[in-house]
Amino acid sequence: MTEVEFLAEYDPAAYERPALAVDLVLLGLRDGRLTALLLKREQFPHAGRWGLPGGFVGIDQPIDAAALHVLSEKAGLAGMHLEQLYTFGALDRDPRMRIVSVAYLALLPESAFSEALERSSSLLAATIEVPWSGEAGGPVSALSPKGETLPLAFDHADILAMAILRLRGKLDYSDVGFAFLPEQFTLRQLQDVHEAVLDTTLNKPAFRRRMLDRGWLAPTGLREAGTSFRPAELYRFQRSR
Amino acid sequence: MTEVEFLAEYDPAAYERPALAVDLVLLGLRDGRLTALLLKREQFPHAGRWGLPGGFVGIDQPIDAAALHVLSEKAGLAGMHLEQLYTFGALDRDPRMRIVSVAYLALLPESAFSEALERSSSLLAATIEVPWSGEAGGPVSALSPKGETLPLAFDHADILAMAILRLRGKLDYSDVGFAFLPEQFTLRQLQDVHEAVLDTTLNKPAFRRRMLDRGWLAPTGLREAGTSFRPAELYRFQRSR
DNA sequence: GGAATAGTGTCTGTGAGACACTATTAA
DNA sequence: TTAATAGTGTCTCACAGACACTATTCC
């Protein structure tokens, strides 16, 4: 049977369909560590475990719109940039029924991150621990602010691992790193972002040269305030060319 | 309403669900050009246009398994490596009903490519033309072997564009390029693969050095046959470390 | 020997890492 | 003046592009 024949004979109601959902990895940086917003599950299944904010995709809703809807409903945020990550469709990901989930990634500046935490008391900022086989994308673990390991629901450890893998892969050659920063920032803050994401230390002069040569940084002429030492120059991100 | 409450109240049958499908981008190299396997659509919708091999995901079928099933049913191939590309879920991608499609990418060596063409007479090898804003991922066009532009069905031009974007992005730092080659190959063939995918010419000594330094190439000690000039050494791909 | 391609030696420029240095601020 | 961090000058090394050269095969 060819695809054409199959589709022609296909009765929309004849076959049972998987449910379609979205899950959101909302990442921020706290104390130089990658941090994700998690929700505690109160009921079966996986009650007591921690999960990513998620929701179902409506029949008349584009997938991206469903993701934006979850962003607004569960995290009280709007206008963040969401990037589709991967679609998870193992048979046993959810014990209730077959659910296929499209995972999205959003990077939050500190202001949005704490705004979300304030608006929804059920959200928790969990530090993401990448076992230093990080490159391989192995499962990650989540730690509460007190340092306790949080049990994760469903396959959400895999989703988090893929988010971090993607983030690390794109950090060097794209402008994703700026998404963690406020409107104005110093080169040191930018370097802190890269060091936190990659979990390494970077060479300062080399990092500055690289960033300045890309044409993504517009000097504001302003300087940071409130330091007890020489204040650093503030830059603004501008998409080059 | 929190996610937990939503899921708890969710009645599996209460909401209409999108249909879930997979579409396969099967790429090979012919005459130094990227080439995809397309199927002609005989019936409405998009009758007469060309589409990617695809099929629906069964309720008890993992998404990857559905993709492998399409690979076997529509292309007569087995054991190829499939990589999930992206999930397309616009409301109007299919005029009949809401269909969300998970796109997969497979790279075929010439032997598998022509094997598929032989087994299914409805398949066509279409040259993929990337308008040289290629980097941006703009829509691509497909050309028949005679050079005529083929009208593509649904959003399959976008899917093809994303496949090529992904392929180009991974070529430099991963081993995907070897997927186009037979068991044994020459360095010139490997360079041809890279040049075809990137649509550029590459520097020969630099390319050799880079490839040999990666430790992915095991010399076989054999040489290619049938040339009317100095035969090149044959290498085999080996995953390093 | 000629034609054609395989494969190499070497120069040069670019860019990153290392490291020490200067600059500027608050206290 | 001191402490602390911002920001720079410069050396070195790794690596890619360019180009010319040598090597090897068939005819």
TrEMBL record, chains A, B:
Span of domain Nudix hydrolase: 21-108
Every NrtR DNA-binding winged helix domain range: 177-237
Top-rank taxon: Bacteria
CDD domains membership: NUDIX_NadM_like (cd18873)
Cited Pfam families: NUDIX, WHD_NrtR
InterPro entries the UniProt entry points to: NUDIX_hydrolase-like_dom_sf, NUDIX_hydrolase_dom, WH-like_DNA-bd_sf, WH_DNA-bd_sf, WHD_NrtR
Coiled-coil region(s): none
Protein name per its UniProtKB record: NUDIX domain-containing protein
Organism, scientific name: Methylobacterium marchantiae
